[in-house]
Design a protein that fits this description.
By secondary structure, this protein is α/β, with parallel strands linked by helices. It has one domain. It contains five helices and five strands, in the order αβαβαβαβαβ. The strands form two sheets. A three-stranded parallel beta sheet has the order 1-2-3. A two-stranded parallel ribbon has the order 4-5. Helix 3 (87-96) crosses helix 4 (109-125) and helix 4 packs parallel to helix 5. The radius of gyration is 17 Å and the shape is globular.
Length: 185
C-alpha cells in the first residue's frame, strides 16, 4: 500500500512536495518478546517489521514505546523490558530493521529515559547510537488534560532532547515533534 501511494506520487510529479512513509505503533505491552518460543505471541509484530522491511521502498516510523526498559545503567547487554521484550527487540523494531525510523512515544517523563537507554544500547552493542526522528505525544487525543496525565508536545520533545543530550554517546538533534488526535464521527 505504501509503495503504491509512493509510486502514484512520483508518477504524478508530486515527489518534490510530498513524502511517503509507513508507520506502526509498536508497543511491548501488546505482544511478548520476539525471543519467545510462542510464535503466536509475537508473530504479528516480528512478521510486520520483517515483511515491511522486505517489500517496502519507503521508511516506516515506529511511534511506539520502550515500556519497562531500563532508564539508566545500560551496558552492552540487552536489558529487560515489559512483557518479555528486551532492549534488543525495541532496538530492532525501531532502528535495526533497514526501513525503521524511531519517533518514540514520550507521553510521560520516564519514557524519554527509556529511549535514551535504547540509543545507548545501540551505541554500546550495535556499533552506533539510535537517531530519533523526534518525539510523539498524545496531548490533543487526551483532551488537553490539565492534571499531568500526558505531556504537551513541547514537553515530550524537551524531555527526549534533554535525555539524549545528557550523554555524549546519544547526543543528537531532534528534527520533529508530533502529536496525535482522533475524533469519532
Amino acid at each position: 500500500m505504501v509503495n503504491s501511494v509512493g509510486n502514484w506520487i512520483q508518477s504524478h510529479g508530486y515527489s518534490a512536495r510530498v513524502t511517503v512513509a509507513g508507520a506502526d505503533d509498536i508497543e511491548d505491552d501488546w505482544y511478548g518478546s520476539s525471543d519467545s518460543q510462542d510464535q503466536n505471541n509475537i508473530g504479528p509484530t516480528t512478521q510486520w517489521v520483517n515483511g515491511y522491511d522486505a517489500y517496502a521502498a519507503y521508511a516506516y516510523y515506529d511511534y511506539g514505546d520502550a515500556g519497562g526498559c531500563p532508564t539508566s545503567g545500560t551496558s552492552g547487554d540487552s536489558g529487560g523490558c515489559n512483557n518479555g521484550w528486551t532492549q534488543d527487540n525495541i532496538w530492532y523494531n525501531s532502528w535495526g530493521a533497514s526501513a525503521a525510523e524511531p519517533l518514540p512515544e514520550i507521553y510521560y517523563s520516564g519514557m524519554a529515559s527509556e529511549w535514551q537507554q535504547i540509543s545507548l544500547y545501540g551505541y554500546l552493542s550495535k556499533g552506533g547510537q539510535v537517531f530519533m526522528q523526534g518525539s510523539f505525544t498524545e496531548w490533543a487525543a487526551s483532551g488537553y488534560c490539565t492534571n499531568g496525565c500526558t505531556n504537551e508536545p513541547a514537553q515530550g520533545w524537551t524531555q527526549l532532547y534533554d535525555a539524549l543530550n545528557a550523554d555524549w554517546r546519544t547526543a543528537q538533534n531532534l528534527p520533529y515533534s508530533s502529536d496525535i488526535s482522533w475524533s469519532q464521527t
